[in-house]
From TrEMBL, chain A:
The lineage of its organism: Bacteria, Pseudomonadati, Pseudomonadota, Gammaproteobacteria, Chromatiales. It holds the Pfam family Response_reg. This is Two-component system response regulator. Gene3D superfamilies: 3.40.50.2300. Residues 3-118 form the Response regulatory domain. InterPro entries: Bact_response_regulator (IPR050595), CheY-like_superfamily (IPR011006), Sig_transdc_resp-reg_receiver (IPR001789). It comes from Lamprobacter modestohalophilus.
Automatic annotation (TrEMBL), chain B:
SUPFAM superfamilies: ARM repeat. The keyword Nucleotidyltransferase does not apply. GO terms for molecular function: lyase activity. This is PBS lyase. Signal peptide: none annotated. The keyword Lipid biosynthesis does not apply.
TrEMBL record, chain C:
Methylation of the membrane-bound methyl-accepting chemotaxis proteins (MCP) to form gamma-glutamyl methyl ester residues in MCP. This is Chemotaxis protein methyltransferase. Residues 1-279 form the CheR-type methyltransferase domain. Gene3D superfamilies: Chemotaxis receptor methyltransferase CheR, N-terminal domain, Vaccinia Virus protein VP39. S-adenosyl-L-methionine binds at residues 77, 79, 83, 121, 147, 220-221. Its EC number is 2.1.1.80. GO terms for biological process: methylation. It holds the Pfam family CheR. GO terms for molecular function: protein-glutamate O-methyltransferase activity. PANTHER family: CHEMOTAXIS PROTEIN METHYLTRANSFERASE, CHEMOTAXIS PROTEIN METHYLTRANSFERASE 2. Keywords: Methyltransferase, S-adenosyl-L-methionine, Transferase. It catalyses: L-glutamyl-[protein] + S-adenosyl-L-methionine = [protein]-L-glutamate 5-O-methyl ester + S-adenosyl-L-homocysteine.
């Protein structure tokens, strides 16, 4: 079973993503900011990361940069943002995101992206 | 070799970068030094000088070294005067995400000082700034928090601003929020996230009343 | 009773999210009884008949005193020898190896244990080094241990312990490093002389200035009792107290992810610890 880490400082958002992903058969863990995500993946890496942009202590960009430099099995990351400017998208992709999508998220859209990325990653 | 009784660091062992004058002028000079360690110690000691807030804010914007940034932010939290608050609010408009998030974090630590600016921030024309403002509300120990949140979900046209406010209403909401939550659900009937978050908030509010 | 207070499922969820955000401690559903019991205890102590009233106090009280009281109650803090032993295993198995490999001089390795409490931690570290770190023959190690409380420092220097504090010390080590004094055990003099005890308030910058150049800091179950700002400030002082590449170990319920982004996370086989970046000064 694929393990997904949901990184967002808003508890409701984590719960929303968790319910969608668990219903689809994924195993979900949560982190409240980028630093906690790094702590968790040091214990056991994940198959995919859902990353919010704005978080305290370490934001989504900082998390992705750190993740991509770590000597751990790498995995795809989806950055979820409220900002639509081209520069934000660019920054996210340079930092190591595989996909940049905007809130609010619809369940079917999220699942399509997650399954698509996991499929690509295996090929 | 083996275990030896250690000694505290003697008073004569002053960090080199701390040897220059520790008065305001000396510190302001040190805040712009080449060496990051000198800048970090200067920022730390400047917390004792509220009049240094403007200089700290200027340095914050150009500072590249993370450890110095962090100490400047801590010093600004300690100072917490109007100059500091206004300067941190200005950071919410910057492109630099790290600085924006850091500013939000500091503002959350200073609820009383931020409260007077809240009304204006929640009406800002930039939806991102409004989201940040709602984020700051999270830690605000202020009697008007719920009222502000209800205003946001009743009036704000931007779905993500409302989404951020609903998250928080699940925690602080009371009976007064129920009508606004119900009309929010109608306003964004096509958004599953809003439905989910509003339902969760309503469920929690109702559990409170039981 | 008509109004017997209780914690509903929704209350528990709400509380759990709030407490997690504030402290990083996440209570699993299995901890429900433990959490409810303590919440009800604090509700009674603060004269709140409903969870809602209590939660408002917790969330909005300007001083944050009630949150502190609750944290104290939720973190059962016992001190005994070799508590959270995996970190000592990490010290001798990984951290010290890295430190001596990097070392370009033969200056002593410095370890700081704060708060000392009644001394179980610093003496435990000393025993661990003597027993499990063969390189101690080639290197000098200094252990300094500090506490804000002078009474407890006096007790730590005396090194007298009851059976309870020694329950995890194997018999041979007990014989080797302790002697019986009445109903208690005292740390042998050679070991007591190997640890320097000092009084330190970690929030005081002058105190902190006199405690620097450390390679490893153990600061377990202390920061959890501080408010956000003091916690961040103390972490920044520890950053300055460490040599570049130095390590800091926190308690099991504490995470640097709630405190400060200054440190790198290091995963060793025995434990996850935090490191001041090598290139930092």
């Amino acid at each position: 079973m694929k393990r997904i880490l949901v990184i967002d400082d808003a508890a409701t958002v984590r719960l929303y993503h968790r319910e969608i992903l668990e219903k689809a058969g994924f195993v979900v863990d949560e982190a409240i900011n980028g630093l906690e995500a790094l702590e968790k993946l040091e214990q056991a890496p994940f198959d995919l990361y859902l990353v919010d942009v704005n978080m305290p202590k370490l934001d989504g960009y900082g998390f992705l940069r750190a993740l991509r430099q770590l000597d751990v099995p790498q995995a795809p990351a989806i950055m979820i943002s409220t900002e639509s400017s081209a520069s934000d998208r660019h920054t996210a992709l340079v930092a190591g995101a595989n996909l940049y999508i905007l809130k609010p998220i619809k369940p079917e859209q999220l699942l399509a992206h997650v399954q698509g990325l996991l499929g690509e990653w295996q090929d | 070799m083996g275990l030896k009784k250690g000694k505290p660091t003697p008073a004569t062992d002053v960090p080199g970068e701390r040897q220059q004058a520790r008065d305001l002028d000396g510190l302001l000079l040190a805040l712009q030094a080449e060496d990051p360690l000198t800048r970090r110690w200067a920022a730390r000691d400047l917390e004792a000088y509220p009049e240094a807030a403007a200089a700290l804010l200027t340095q914050l914007r150009s500072e590249r070294e993370n450890s110095v940034r962090q100490v400047i932010l801590t010093a600004l939290t300690g100072i917490g005067n109007e100059t500091a608050i206004r300067g941190l609010i200005d950071c919410l408009y910057l492109e630099d995400v790290m600085l924006r998030n850091a500013a939000i974090e500091v503002l959350k630590e200073l609820p009383d000082q931020v409260a007077p600016f809240m009304g204006q921030l929640l009406k800002d024309s930039d939806p991102d700034v409004r989201i940040f403002a709602v984020d700051v509300l999270e830690s605000l120990r202020h009697p008007r928090v719920e009222e502000w949140l209800i205003e946001v979900i009743s009036e704000d046209p931007h779905v993500n601003v409302c989404a951020t406010a609903v998250d928080l209403l699940g925690e602080v909401g009371s009976d007064q929020a129920k009508v606004a939550l119900a009309s929010l659900k109608q306003r964004f009937a096509e958004e599953p996230y809003i439905q989910f978050a509003a339902d969760l908030a309503l469920k929690r509010i109702e559990a409170d009343e039981a | 009773m008509l109004n017997h207070p209780r914690i509903s499922d929704e209350d528990f969820q709400k509380f759990r999210e709030f407490f997690y955000r504030k402290t990083g401690m996440l209570f699993e559903d299995g901890k429900r009884y433990f959490v409810d019991k303590r919440l009800l205890e604090r509700m009674a102590a603060t004269d709140n008949e409903t969870f809602r009233g209590y939660f408002t106090l917790l969330r909005f009280q300007a001083s944050g005193a009630e949150l502190q009281a609750l944290i104290n109650l939720m973190t059962v803090n016992e001190t005994y020898f070799f508590r959270e032993e995996y970190q000592f295993q990490c010290l001798v198995g990984s951290m010290l190896t890295e430190i001596v490999t990097r070392r370009t001089s033969n200056k002593p390795i410095r370890i700081w244990s704060v708060p000392s409490s009644s001394g179980e931690e610093p003496y435990g570290i000393a025993i661990y080094l003597l027993e499990h770190w063969p390189l101690l023959r080639q290197w000098d190690v200094e252990i300094i241990s500090s506490d804000i409380d002078t009474q407890i420092l006096k007790q730590a220097k005396q090194g007298l312990y009851s059976d309870r504090a020694l329950q995890h010390v194997p018999e041979p080590l007990l014989k080797k490093y302790f002697q019986r004094v009445g109903t208690q055990y005292q740390v042998r003099q050679t070991l007591r002389e190997a640890v320097e005890f000092t009084q330190v308030n970690v929030s005081d910058s002058a105190d902190m200035r006199s405690h620097r150049h450390f390679d490893v800091i153990f600061c377990r179950n202390l920061l959890i009792y501080f408010d956000d700002i003091s916690r961040k400030k103390t972490a920044e002082s520890f950053f300055d107290a460490l040599n570049p590449g130095g390590f800091i170990c926190l308690g099991h319920s504490e995470a640097m992810s709630r405190i400060s982004p200054l440190f790198d996370i290091r995963r060793f086989p025995e434990a996850i610890v935090y490191q001041k970046p090598l290139e930092a000064r």
